[in-house]
Write a sequence for this structure.
């Protein structure tokens, strides 16, 4: 999997948009960008993923730059319950080939703290 | 649907004891994974399985064994527990089509004394 770089921590005011950046300059053409989050003491939770187009679901929006070397996860109206570690992961999609390229590799992520 | 269920939720072992962690999913997922999480380390993949009867090593497989005799269950075994295996263990499952995310369990907190 390609490496990702995320800031270790960010703060956001409740009710404001939270914009979490991620750099993935070595991403290859068949690799997707995935975002997960982990609220304290819980298992990680899938948020959203994309290949090259911007994506939106009920939880968040994902903006991927045209060169695909970076992306931003947007939580439009952050709440206190959004305080968590957010992981940006790149991974290819395809059938199992017995290698190491079929798994999600979690880094240290960004600790987002939403303040009242 | 329960999603991914891990048992037990907590366990304390003495060094040298053995135990099995059970992961069960009811979503008919083909793939299943075991991760461990230590403070400041993020999640590290121990073993994974891409189908019933198959298993493969992840980043940190030493000291662990796994089995996937049934599609819905993925077992993680510690034959001789060591203090270095004190950790939080997470199981996850997914479809083979990567156009979906992983579903994680709530974790097993294991302490080896």
């Amino acid at each position: 999997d390609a490496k990702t770089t995320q800031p270790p921590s960010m703060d956001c005011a409740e009710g404001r948009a939270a914009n979490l950046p991620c750099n993935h300059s070595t991403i290859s053409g068949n690799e997707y960008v995935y975002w997960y989050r982990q609220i304290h003491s819980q298992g990680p939770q899938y948020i959203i993923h994309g290949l090259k187009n911007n994506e939106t679901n009920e939880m968040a929006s994902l903006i991927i730059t045209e060169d695909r070397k970076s992306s931003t996860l947007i939580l439009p109206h952050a709440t206190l319950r959004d305080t968590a570690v957010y992981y940006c992961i790149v991974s290819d999609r395809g059938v199992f080939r017995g290698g190491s390229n079929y798994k999600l590799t979690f880094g240290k992520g960004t600790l987002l703290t939403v303040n009242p | 649907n329960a999603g991914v269920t891990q048992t037990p939720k907590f366990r304390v072992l003495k060094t040298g004891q053995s135990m099995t962690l059970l992961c069960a999913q009811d979503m008919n997922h083909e793939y299943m994974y075991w991760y461990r999480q230590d403070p400041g380390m993020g999640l590290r993949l121990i073993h994974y399985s891409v189908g019933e009867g198959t298993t493969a090593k992840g980043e940190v497989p030493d000291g662990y064994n796994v089995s996937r005799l049934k599609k819905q269950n993925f077992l993680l075994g510690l034959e001789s527990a060591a203090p270095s295996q004190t950790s939080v263990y997470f199981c996850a499952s997914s479809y083979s089509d990567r156009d979906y995310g992983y579903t994680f369990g709530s974790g097993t907190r294991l302490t080896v004394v």
About this structure: The CA atoms of residues 14 and 79 of chain A lie 5 Å apart. DSSP finds no helices and nine strands in chain A.
